[in-house]
Design goal:
single chain; 3 helices; elongated; binds zinc ion
Length: about 120
């Protein structure tokens, strides 16, 4: 498949998302209570052109090895974990989200970012 977008990095902002990725309970609670947004390394959203459907499809991509990736169709809730302010599908709920997100990003522009994964 051909990529037709940039990679949209995913971020975790709650304890459960961090714990699912192997972070210890205490560390996860500390980061979240400090209002730290944690970048999920090796996980992103990316659009690909699908020849069979003749349309662009958004995938959740997870790097699982040096050259191995796991792709699954991106559920819309994942857009809540994306940094950025795009509305690629013209979906009203996504648009609503991006407006909120851009406000949140502006509001939190000085908060710290940590990398994990
Ligand atoms: Zn398809």
């Amino acid at each position: 498949m051909d990529s037709v977008s940039q990679k949209y990095q995913l971020f975790a902002d709650n304890v459960q998302q961090l714990r699912q990725r192997g972070m210890g309970r205490q560390n996860a609670h500390i980061l979240v209570s400090a209002n730290t947004t944690v970048s999920l390394k090796g996980e992103w959203l990316e659009a690909f052109w699908c020849d069979r459907c003749q349309k662009t499809e958004w995938y959740y991509v997870k790097k699982t090895g040096e050259r191995a990736y796991h792709l699954s169709l991106a559920p819309s809730r994942l857009w809540q974990q994306v940094a950025g302010t795009i509305d690629p599908r013209g979906n009203p709920s996504v648009g609503e989200f991006t407006r909120k997100q851009s406000r949140r990003l502006n509001y939190n522009s000085s908060k710290s970012f940590r990398f994990y994964g």
